[in-house]
Amino acid sequence: MKDVHALPPRPGSLTLDRVGISGVRKPLRIERPGRVVPLSASFTLAVDLPAHRKGSDLSRNAELLAERVDWPDATPVASLEAACSSIARELLGRHPYAERAEVRAEAEYFLPRGVRPGRSSLENFTLLAEGLARREGERIVVRRSIGAEAVGLTACPCAMETARDLLEKEYPALRAPELAQLPVLTHNQRNRTRLRFEVDEEVEVEADRIIEAIEAAQSSPTYAILKRGDEARVVVDAHRNPKFVEDVVRDLLTSLPERFPDLPDGAAAFVGTVSEESIHKYDVLASHTATLGELRAARAP
Amino acid sequence: MKDVHALPPRPGSLTLDRVGISGVRKPLRIERPGRVVPLSASFTLAVDLPAHRKGSDLSRNAELLAERVDWPDATPVASLEAACSSIARELLGRHPYAERAEVRAEAEYFLPRGVRPGRSSLENFTLLAEGLARREGERIVVRRSIGAEAVGLTACPCAMETARDLLEKEYPALRAPELAQLPVLTHNQRNRTRLRFEVDEEVEVEADRIIEAIEAAQSSPTYAILKRGDEARVVVDAHRNPKFVEDVVRDLLTSLPERFPDLPDGAAAFVGTVSEESIHKYDVLASHTATLGELRAARAP
Amino acid sequence: MKDVHALPPRPGSLTLDRVGISGVRKPLRIERPGRVVPLSASFTLAVDLPAHRKGSDLSRNAELLAERVDWPDATPVASLEAACSSIARELLGRHPYAERAEVRAEAEYFLPRGVRPGRSSLENFTLLAEGLARREGERIVVRRSIGAEAVGLTACPCAMETARDLLEKEYPALRAPELAQLPVLTHNQRNRTRLRFEVDEEVEVEADRIIEAIEAAQSSPTYAILKRGDEARVVVDAHRNPKFVEDVVRDLLTSLPERFPDLPDGAAAFVGTVSEESIHKYDVLASHTATLGELRAARAP
Amino acid sequence: MKDVHALPPRPGSLTLDRVGISGVRKPLRIERPGRVVPLSASFTLAVDLPAHRKGSDLSRNAELLAERVDWPDATPVASLEAACSSIARELLGRHPYAERAEVRAEAEYFLPRGVRPGRSSLENFTLLAEGLARREGERIVVRRSIGAEAVGLTACPCAMETARDLLEKEYPALRAPELAQLPVLTHNQRNRTRLRFEVDEEVEVEADRIIEAIEAAQSSPTYAILKRGDEARVVVDAHRNPKFVEDVVRDLLTSLPERFPDLPDGAAAFVGTVSEESIHKYDVLASHTATLGELRAARAP
Q1: Measured between CB atoms, does A70 come within 8 Å of chain C?
Q2: A touches which chains (3+ CB pairs under 8 A)?
Q3: Are B19 and B49 in contact (CB under 8 A)?
Q4: pLDDT per residue over A237-286, tens digit each?
Q5: Counted domains in chain B
Q6: Contact, C280 vs D226, CB < 8 A?
Q7: In degrees, to the nearest 5, what angle opens at C-alpha B65 toward C-alphas B62 and B71?
Q8: I need a surface site. Which of A252, B189, B203, D263 has the fewest CB within 10 A?
Q9: pLDDT at residue B301 is higher than 70
Q10: C261 vs chain A: nearest CA distance in angstroms?
C-alpha cells in the first residue's frame, strides 16, 4: 500500500514547525502518595516536519498515546507531566525525521476542601502539563511544564476605599475610630488563576502545592458547601484580603521562592489571572513570567 | 438529476419532528425609530418531515434566509422576530410537505448606557427571537417570540445579613442605631437574565424595553466605563438592592403587567436567571413561566 | 443567625418552577459488570419554590451531592441515572416545601473500540442522566432518564448520487455494469447523535447498549487509531452506508424495539442528531420523540 | 478620593508584563472601498506595569475604546487593525508609566460567495487584528498584525490512495486506464485556517485578499447555498484537490510572495490550520511561521 505521507512533497516545500493531533480525550490514572487518581485528559501531540517529507505519520501519535495511557495493561503514570514528557521523548523515536516533539495535556482534578470539619467536599481544579523534547546531536533533551488553574474569589481594594468614602459621607458614625478596620463592601467576583512551571525533565513539582499557592494568592478560595455561618466567614475574610489582579500575580510570584525552595534558579514560572468582574460585562487580566532566580533576587534585601 | 430527498424512504418510516439547519451566521439590519441597526445573527431553520419522504430540501432553507436578510437588495427588516416569523411562514410555502416550521435567531445587540453624562458607552446584550408557523387547514398560523438577555450584578441578601451578625460581634460600634441602614459587605457576582415573550404574530414588543425590564430586576446593571467615584456608587447602590436569583425572577415577572400593559393575557413570559456565584465554582439558577393573565391576577389585591 | 431564605417574600409573590445550582463538577464511580468506572460529571440540582418562601436552601443541594458522590466513604453508585434519581428523591426530603425536584448530570465516558485486534483504544462518549421526582400525595414518584451521545461519521447519500452523475459524464467508463455498485465520492463529516430514554425509576437501561445503538445508526463509528489500511476500510464502508440526518434518526428509532425488547411501551425515546457538514459552515440537524409503544406499532406489518 | 491604583505596592514588588481588560464587546464600522462595513468585535487592551505602582488605571482602557469606536460622533475606522494600532499608541499616552501596550481584536466578517451567479450569499469569516506599541526613547513604535480565519473543506489524499487500492481489488474494472484520473472517495471535513501578518504600522494588507489566499489553499471553500448540481461540483472539485493539513499550510505560505508582492521582507506570516477529522473524534493541526523574505528565498530556483 502506497505510503503517501512519506512521498516527497512538491519541490521547494517548506519545513513545518508543528504537525499533530489535538483534542484527543483519554482517561488515565496518576499515582499520588497512597492513592491512584483517575483523570480525563485532553491531549495535543505534535512534531515538526522536514522539507523532504509530504506528511507526518499521525496514526503513530494516537497509537503511542493509547499504549501509554489507555491499554489494559497500562500501569498508572507518575503524573500528568511525566506522561507528557515520556510520550514527547518517544514521539521522536517514532518520527525519526522530526527534531522536536511537544505533548500537552489538560485535565480536571479534584481535591478535598472545606471551611471546617464536616463541610469538606471535592472542589474542581485544572491540571496543565507539557513535555517538550528536542534532539541535541545524539541526545534527546526534554523540558516539562507542570501547572494548574484554580477558581477563587477576588474582592476589589479600590472600590472598597471609594465605597468607604461615599458611605462615610452618608453615615458619619462610620468614621468612629473603632470602625477604622471594619471591612466595607466592594465588588467581588470569580477569579481564575494559572501557575505553570517550566523545568528540566528530572525536576518534580507536586501539583497539589501549585494549587495551594494559587489559592493563597486570591482573596479567598471558594467552596461547594457553605452553610449560612460559613458563607459569612468566607465573605468577611475575603474582604479583609482585597486583591487587584495585579496583587494576585505579584503575591503568587513572590510566594514561590519560599513555597518551592527546591526549584532551580533556571525554572521559569508563568502566572496568568482573570477576574470575571461583577461590575463589568468584561474581564480583567494580568500576567507575568519570571525565573525562580529572578524571583529570589527580587526578594533579597 | 435524481432527487434523492424526494424518494420514498424505507417502508414503515417515521415522520420526524424537526429537520433543518443551525448555526447559520448572517448579518442583517433591523429598523429602529430613527435608525437602522446592523446585527450579526445565528439562525436555526427547521420543518417537520412526513413519513413518505426520505429527506428535507435543506438548500431551500439557506436560500430563503439569504433572500430575506443578505441579498444586496434586502431592505432592513422591522425586527429580528419579524424576520423569524415571516421566514417561518415562507418555509411552509417552500416545504409543501411540512406542517410546522420554526425559525430561531440570536444576535448581539448594543445600547448606550452610562452612570452619568460623559460616561456613556455601548453595552452588549443578546436578542432572542423565534417564529413558529403551523398549518391550520388552509391557513398558516404563526406565533413569535421576542426576548433578550442582559448581564448585570446581583448582591446576596443572605450573606449580607449573616456578615452583619459576624461583623457586629467584632465591631460592637456597628450596632449604633445610626448605622442600622448601612449596607454591609456581601458576595456579589455577574448575573445573566433572560426574558422572552411568546405572542401571536401581530403583537409587537420593543426589545429595548425588555432589556430595561431585566436591568431593573437585577441588583444593578453593569457598565463598561466606571471611574473611581462611579464604581463606588454602583457598588453601594447594588448593596442597597440585594437579590437572590429567586428575587430577580419574581421581581421581573411582577413588573411585567405595568411595563407591558398592551400585551394580551394570553402572552406567555419565560424568565430564566443564572448568577455566577463568586463564592462557589458553580452557578445558581432560577426560572419560571407565566402568562400575562396569570401575572395580572397575582397582582390584583 | 437569621434565616433569610425562610422569610416570607413580598406579599403577592409568585411560586417558582425551578431554583437550584448548576455546573457542579464532581468525580464519582459507577459500577459496571466486573469493574468500577470513574467519571467526572457536571450536575444540576433544582426544586420548585412555593409563594410563601423567599429563598431555596441551596446549600442543602451541594451538601446532598457531596454525601452521595464524593465523601470518602461514598460507595460506587449503580449508575449515573441511579445517582440522579436517588438524589432527586432525597432533595424532596431536604426541601419539604418543594413539590418537584430534578437532578441532571452529564459525564464523559470511555469504551474500548477498534477496527481490528491490536488497534483498539478508548473512545470518548458522553453519558446523559436525569432524575425527576414529584410528590403525589404522601408518595414520591420518580422518573429517570438515561442517554448518551456518540460522535460518528455520516456520508451524504444525495451528493453521492449527483457526484456519480457528474463523474459518469466525464468518465463514461464509470457506467460499466461492473462498477454499478462502486461507492463513489461524497461529502462526509462528524455527526453527533444523542439517544435518551425517559422511564420509571425501576427501569434499567445499559448505557453501553445505548452507545452501540447510536453507532449502528451512523454511516460509521470513528476511531482514534487507524493505520493506512484501516482508514481505507472505514471510509469505504461508510460510503456504502450513506446517511442523511433524517436516516440517522429514523434508523436509530426503528432499531429500538429489537435492541431494547424489555423496555415498556410507555418508555419515551428522544433522538437528536447534528451533522457538522463539511461543505457548509453551518450544521444540519434532525430530531424526533416517540414512545416504545409507538415504535413497536410502526413496525407491525 | 484616594487613588488606590497609584499607591506604591509592597516593597520589593515586581513589574508585570500585562495588565488589562479582555472580552470587551463593541460594534464598530470599518471603511471598505465604496462601503462601510459594521462589525461586532471583541477587544483585549493591556499595558505593562512598573514595580513602583500598585495598579493599572483600567477605566482608561474602556474609556479610550469607547471614544474611538462607539461614541456617536465616532467616524468609521479605516480597518480593524488600524483601530488596534492607533488605540495601542494612545494607550501609552494614557498610561504614562507603561512601556508597552497591546490591543487585540477579533470580529465576525461577511463576504459574498457563490458557486455561480444567483447562488451567491454572505459567508462568515473571522477578522484578527492587533496593535503592539512600545516606547523607544521619546518615540512610540507600533507593529500591527492583520489576519483572518476561513472555514473550508479538506479531502484526505492518503485515504484516497488507499481507498482506491481497496476498491480496485473489489472492482477490477476500476483499473481501466480511462479511470486512472477518476477521483475516488476519501474522508473530508471542515478545516479552519488562519493567516496572520505582523508588519510595521504603516503597512496595509487587505483582509479580503487574506481570506482569498486561505480559501485557495484548502481543498475547497464551503458555501451556504448549494443546490443539488452545485453540491456535486464542489465535492468533486474538492476530491480533485485533496490536501493534508501539511499541504494547506505549505501551499498557503508558498502562495504569499505572489499574492502579496508589496509586503516587505521583514513581514512575518503565521499560518495555523485545524481539520476536524470526520474519521476521528479529534482534530489534526499544522502550523508554521516564516518571514516574507524567507518565503521569497525558498521560491528562488
Answers
A1: yes
A2: B, C, D
A3: yes
A4: 999 999 999 999 999 999 999 999 999 999 999 999 999 999 999 999 99
A5: 2
A6: yes
A7: 110
A8: B203
A9: no
A10: 32
Q: Are residues B61 and B142 in the same domain?
A: no
C66-85 pLDDT per residue, tens: 999 886 566 788 999 999 99
Contact call for residues A256 and A269 (beta carbons, < 8 A): yes
The residue with greater pLDDT, B3 or C79, is: C79
CA distance B58 to C106: 31
D273 and D151: one domain?
Answer: yes
Contact A287/A252 with Cβ under 8 angstroms? Answer: no
User: Do residue B65 and residue B169 come from a single domain?
Assistant: no
Nearest residue on chain D to A158, alpha-carbon basis: D4
- Is residue A193 located within the same domain as residue A231? yes
In a domain, A6, yes or no: no
D136 CB-contact burial (10 Å; exposed 0-12 / middle 13-18 / buried 19+): exposed
Give the tens place of pLDDT for each residue, A148-170: 999 999 999 999 999 999 999 99
- Domain boundary residue, one of C90, C107, C124: C107
Q: Do C87 and C148 lie in a common domain?
A: no
| C153 and C239 within one domain | yes
Which residues does chain D have within 8 Å of residue A55's beta carbon, measured at their own beta carbons? 158, 244, 246
Element (H, E) at A197: strand A188-200
Check CB contact of D14 with chain A, cutoff 8 Å.
yes
What's the rounded Cα separation, in Å, for the pair D296 and A17? Answer: 18
Segment C26-68, tens digit of pLDDT: 999 998 888 889 999 999 999 999 999 999 999 999 999 999 9
pTM metric for this prediction: 0.96
Q: Which CATH number characterizes residue C67's domain?
A: 3.10.270.10
Q: Are D107 and D43 in contact (CB under 8 A)?
A: no
Q: Chain D 220-239, CB below 8 Å of chain C: which residues?
A: 220, 222-224, 226, 228-229, 231-236, 238-239
Q: Which of A92, A111, A137 is the last residue of a domain?
A: A137
CB count in 10 Å sphere of residue A289 = 16
Cell numbers placing C65? 451531592
Q: Does D25 touch chain B (CB under 8 A)?
A: yes
Domain that holds residue A258: 138-301
- Does residue C176 sit within a domain? yes
Q: Is residue A10 part of a domain?
A: no
CA–CA distance, C120 with D108 (Å, rounded to integer)? 41
Give the rounded distance of the alpha carbon of B214 from its chain centre: 9
Q: What is the ipTM of this complex?
A: 0.95
Specify whether C35 is located in the same domain as C152: no
* pLDDT of the residue at C6: 82
**Cα-based distances in Å from A178 to B277, C118, C150, D11:** 32, 75, 63, 28
Q: Is C291 on the interface with D (CB under 8 A)?
A: no
Do residues B98 and B217 share a domain?
A: no
Cβ–Cβ < 8 Å for A295, A253:
yes
How far apart, in Å, are the Cα atoms of B142 and each of A200, B203, D36?
Answer: 66, 11, 35
- Using DSSP, state whether B134 is helix, strand or coil: strand
CB atoms within 10 A of CB C51: 14
